[in-house]
Design goal:
mainly alpha, about 65% helix, about 70 residues
Length: about 70
């Protein structure tokens, strides 16, 4: 099995798990996922504000994914 197909299996599993949590209701699943994104972005912003640049050797978190 190639690395790409293993990643796809993981994504498919996560999609099915998220949908199963909401009894296969996609419209109920989406707001939950968007809420999770909002929460994690806030946590990232708080972590960025609390840590020094020396602690991370100049690394800074990015709020958007790189392509």
């Amino acid at each position: 099995m190639s690395t790409k197909s293993v990643k796809q299996v993981d994504v498919d599993f996560e999609i099915e798990a998220a949908l199963a949590f909401h009894n296969e209701d996609a419209k109920a699943t989406i707001p939950t996922l968007l809420g999770d994104i909002k929460h994690l972005r806030m946590q990232l912003a708080l972590a960025e504000a609390a840590m020094s640049r020396g602690m991370t050797s100049g690394w800074t978190p990015k709020f958007e994914r790189e392509a």
